[in-house]
Specification:
It is built from 20 helices and 8 strands. With 409 residues, it is an alpha/beta fold. It has one domain: P-loop containing nucleotide triphosphate hydrolases (Rossmann fold). The strands form 2 sheets. It has a 5-stranded parallel β-sheet with strand order 5-6-4-7-8. A 3-stranded antiparallel β-sheet has the order 1-3-2. The radius of gyration is 22 Å and the shape is globular. The model has no long low-confidence stretch (mean pLDDT 90). Keywords: Transferase. It comes from Takifugu bimaculatus. Pfam families: Sulfotransfer_1. Its EC number is 2.8.2.-.
Length: 409
């Protein structure tokens, strides 16, 4: 392990990526940028705009929405949206317009780091509204036609499908704009989106450009989000990568789980990563889809610093809030206040704050998985040594020694 750690240490001192030119990002998805304007309504906190409606008033505007077609849970929501759609069309200069909105902020990762719990607690704030579903995975997968990569290409979820997810809040904001609701507070509503794949998953490019010999994706998800919303707020929740990996293994593996099986899979994954480093740069190994598919556990998802540095090539550090799950669990009230301050929303009432802090943690380890016990001490020591250079670099970049995760559970 020591020679491998030495290699990782030396490879971490790489030159940061140069983001693609804006015109190249536009050209890579011209339809996306044709549907979203360069500027949003100044009187609204969320990024919203008026879009000309050119559809048939007598047809269901959501009938082709792929999110609706693929999820039974949206039936009630979309029935409501459909029934009230026409009353939210604004006539102007002989045309009809609908209010469209994008997320004000994104919770982008990582998996098994508490994003689901954070999502549900933030919903208790009256100024924060999320899209219709927690994890649309639109930016990383569905806009390219993939739901699960192992299932192959299905059909592209259009940007119109994605925007429909924010129509409930757009309607509330519009009612405030028109003065019909008498609630001007709605102008301060902010929308959020929480897909735990957004930070790291750029695998679609390898499927779309399978003939290319590109060592790294030509574009990253953040290039598109930043091109559309340069002022977006980004929230990242991280966890000790050693514990994250074991939790990931227990959650996503279906059968024959054990601490011994996990150890063997960790060894194989480390060997595969080490083999990749003999041929490629560290960064290209982190993004390599073939390697990701070959590793029996998702070791690369804990190499947080590589992903964060790439997000910092397009977003300013002040726009990215990085939290630790350990701090969130130990001092929920303080951490949530940090999030509220970052999003510039006011404090909760005493009653709402009590409800937020008393809510039990979500996505705790299943009882059957708890019975498997912790990982083997040998596995933990191995993973801790492997992640040490990544954590050291992360702690330095964030100016916070806590991200070194030196203490064992």
């Amino acid at each position: 392990m020591k020679p491998l750690v030495h290699i990782i240490d030396s490879r971490l001192e790489y030159t940061l990526r140069t983001p693609p030119k804006l015109e190249d990002v536009f050209e890579a998805d011209s339809h996306l940028f044709s549907r979203i304007p360069r500027h949003f309504l100044p009187s609204i906190k969320s990024p919203c705009w008026w879009e000309r409606f050119s559809g048939d008033l007598n047809s269901d505007p959501y009938r082709k929405n792929h999110f609706r077609l693929s999820s039974k849970s949206f039936k009630t929501v979309y029935e409501h949206l459909k029934s009230s759609f026409q009353q939210h069309l604004l006539p102007r200069d002989g045309s009809l317009f609908r209010l469209r909105c994008l997320p004000f902020f994104y919770i982008i990762g990582q998996p098994k780091c508490g994003t689901t719990d954070l999502f549900h607690r933030l919903l208790l704030h009256p100024d924060i509204k999320f899209n219709t579903m927690k994890e649309p995975h639109w930016w990383t997968r569905k806009r390219f036609g993939y739901i699960r990569f192992k299932d192959g290409f299905r059909e592209n979820f259009s940007v119109e499908d994605y925007l429909d997810l924010f129509d409930l809040e757009a309607h509330k904001i519009q009612e405030s704009l028109s003065g019909n609701s008498g609630d001007h507070h709605a102008l301060q509503l902010i929308t959020g989106e929480a897909s735990a794949s957004t930070m790291w998953d750029n695998q679609a490019w390898s499927y779309l450009h399978s003939a290319d010999e590109e060592a790294e994706p030509p574009f990253l998800t953040q290039d598109f989000i930043h091109a559309i919303q340069p002022d977006a707020r980004i929230i990242i929740m991280l966890r000790d990568p050693v514990e994250r990996l074991y939790s990931d293994y227990l959650y996503f593996k279906v059968a024959n789980k054990s601490a011994e099986d996990f150890h063997l899979k960790v060894l194989e994954s480390i060997h595969l990563f080490q083999s990749c480093l003999t041929m490629r740069s560290l960064r290209s190994c982190v993004y390599n889809t073939s390697l990701s598919n070959a590793m029996p556990v998702r070791l690369h998802l804990g190499m947080y610093i590589v992903f964060i540095l790439d997000w910092l090539t397009v977003f300013h550090q002040d726009q990215i809030l990085v939290l630790r799950l350990e701090d969130y669990a130990a001092n929920l009230k303080t951490t949530i206040k940090t999030v509220f301050d970052f999003l510039s929303v006011g404090p909760l009432s005493e009653q709402a704050e009590a409800a937020l802090t008393k809510r039990p943690m979500l996505n705790r380890r299943r009882a059957a998985d708890r019975n498997l016990g912790p990982m083997l001490p040998t596995t933990r020591n191995l993973l801790r040594e492997f992640h040490q250079p990544f954590n050291r670099k992360l702690a330095s970049a964030l100016h916070n020694k806590a991200f070194f995760w030196t203490s064992s559970p």
